[in-house]
Amino acid sequence: MTIDSAGALALDAADPLAGFADQFHHPFDDTGRRSIYLCGHSLGLQPKAAAQYVEQELKDWQRLGVLGHHNAHRPWIKYHEQAAATLATLVGAHAAEVVAMNSLTVNLHLMMVSFFRPNGERNRLLIEKSAFPSDRYAVVSQLAFHGLTEAEHLIEVEPRPGERGLRTEDVVSRIEQEGNKLAMVLLPGVQYLTGQALDLAPLAAAARRAGAAVGIDLAHAVGNTPLSLHDWNVDFAVWCSYKYLNAGPGAVGGCFVHERHARSDLPRFTGWWGHDPETRFEMGPQFVPIAGAQGWQISNPPVLSSAPLLASLDIFQRAGLPRIREKSLALTGFLQQLIETRLAGLVDIITPAKAAERGCQLSLRIARPAAAAKRCHDLLSAAGVVGDWREPDVLRLAPIPLYNSYSDVLAAVEALSDAVRR
């Protein structure tokens, strides 16, 4: 692969998705310089159409008032349903198995109410040791809610000494070891710090064999890596939509519930928007859940925070996940090659080297003491490259196939090379 500026420009010229970059707003600094934005793993860029979607809802609210629930351009009463088909495609599910609602951690709590059901000796919950803090907080609070303790009932799996990623066989072994003591296995689709994409099919299968419920946090996986939630037979999954789905800060989250639970009598926290729409407005005292994931809804869809998601999902639908993934593999591989050839011995990639074991993100460690490494990140930021720093020593960069180019990646590595040599 050619790695000079001419080569990068040639790759950009041949990129079938290049035109989608113009459908997003790219940040500029105070001098008017366009930023090199490699932080979509934290907050995706704004689709230009997002404003039109939000403005349409504001205009309909102004024009129609309450009648907008039925007569708006996109009627509000079924607003969440407009996202279902594309979300289902992105996560490998049936449309009835997904719903846009709430936020990630709220959805995680709602799912654990239904699926974390400790009983007798089956009272342990397995997560990865470096889980995103919000997941860990939620899990520990759920344990406490059931009168269980973190010390005794939380099982944490971690990489082998000297290694950075989880080995599938080690996680499977631990699941088998815990066996009938496990009530739930909760794992990420992509590990937020290292960028490792877990091999979820065998992990889910092992958990099912053990008799445990299976939940997946897709915060860093949805819109980033290929997923097959239905076929993997997981019980539930939750995600946010402000990262790779580009729906904006505080945007509506999402949830998957496998169809085998569509009409189950699992306990759940209920609210009126999960009630059968045929009788919802009869305002009866008995809750009758919608069959499928929508039955876990609590409240009306948040229209203004859902509108940007619809704008982004339209882009995903037109670009197609297979093409997005193809470019992701090439673009992230380009970043990997540049770092390995230009920054050997200076920057270490802690994300798995195999393309199938990662998404867009590469997590880097700069071969300097923590304070000096953090200064390199600050210099990179000053040069107009937007990534993010995770204490104590990880720099995360993510070239996003919908709006980043090979030239972006080359410029970012050149800026990083300058930073680490200063």
What does this structure look like?
With 422 residues, this protein is α/β, with parallel strands linked by helices. The strands form four sheets. The chain has a seven-stranded mixed beta sheet with strand order 4-10-9-8-7-5-6, with helices on both faces. A hairpin with a 3-residue loop joins strand 14 and strand 15. Helix 5 packs parallel to helix 6, helix 12 packs parallel to helix 14 and helix 13 packs across helix 14.
Which second-level CATH architecture of the largest domain applies?
3-Layer(aba) Sandwich
Query: For this structure, what is the CATH class of the largest domain?
Result: Alpha Beta
> What's the structural domain tally?
2
Oligomeric status: single chain
Mean pLDDT over all positions: 96
Can you summarize the main beta sheet? 7 strands, mixed
Would you list the SSEs in sequence order as H and E? Answer: HEEEHHHEHEHHEHEHEHEEHHEEHEEEH
> What proportion of the residues is helical, as a percent range?
25-40%
The geometry reads as globular
- Global structural class: alpha/beta
CATH fold description of the largest domain: Aspartate Aminotransferase, domain 2
Estimated radius of gyration: 22 Å
Task: Give the strand order of the largest sheet, numbering strands 1, 2, ... along the chain.
Answer: 4-10-9-8-7-5-6
How much of the sequence lies in strands comes to 5-15%
